[in-house]
Specification:
This protein is an alpha+beta fold. Strands 1, 2, 3, 4, 5 and 6 form a 6-stranded antiparallel sheet that branches. Strand 5 and strand 6 form a beta hairpin. It starts with 5 loop residues before the first helix and ends with a helix.
């Protein structure tokens, strides 16, 4: 059974209210169900971002991965589609997805950032190469950013 980080739980309830509290109550069961279905075992402490938890895991063949489960929100719907479009080029690989649970099993990346690099030229070079890899056409059927921005513009 996973332990949900306290700060994540608090911010989720503050942001989402009762639906957030209800989702947090279900979260350990959701994680257990996905671990079993995808043949994984926990392999480290639960981490979190702004809207989801990340559980380091080991897969059946022993390779490391992470299970990411996000709060169900329209803004998270197409995240797996982006990983499919990138196909591991400039981003981690998507191994499994459960769109109903807002969950993904992803390749485990290294925990370093460009902020750790002291050479400004190297930062720009790496960022440019990464940007080129991620600049792929969006799959058909996904909402376009211009449409989303237009819908959010004040009238």
């Amino acid at each position: 059974m996973i332990v949900t980080p306290e700060g994540f739980a608090r911010s989720t309830v503050e942001r989402e209210g009762e639906p957030g509290a209800a989702w947090l109550a279900e979260l350990p069961g959701i994680v257990e169900e996905l671990l079993e279905r995808w043949g994984c075992v926990p392999d480290g402490e639960v981490m979190h971002g702004g809207v989801g938890v990340i559980v380091p895991v080991r897969r059946r063949a022993g390779e490391s991965a992470v299970l990411k489960v996000s709060f169900p929100h329209p803004g998270n719907v197409h995240e797996p589609d982006a990983f499919v479009a990138w196909g591991g080029r400039g981003a981690v690989l998507l191994y499994e997805r459960d769109d109903g649970r807002f969950a993904m099993l992803l390749e485990r990346g290294r925990s370093s950032t460009l902020a750790e690099v002291e050479d400004g030229d190297e930062v720009v070079t790496v960022a440019g190469a990464l940007n080129r890899r991620l600049a792929v056409p969006a799959p058909p059927g996904l909402p376009r950013l211009c449409e989303q921005a237009a819908a959010r513009r004040p009238r």
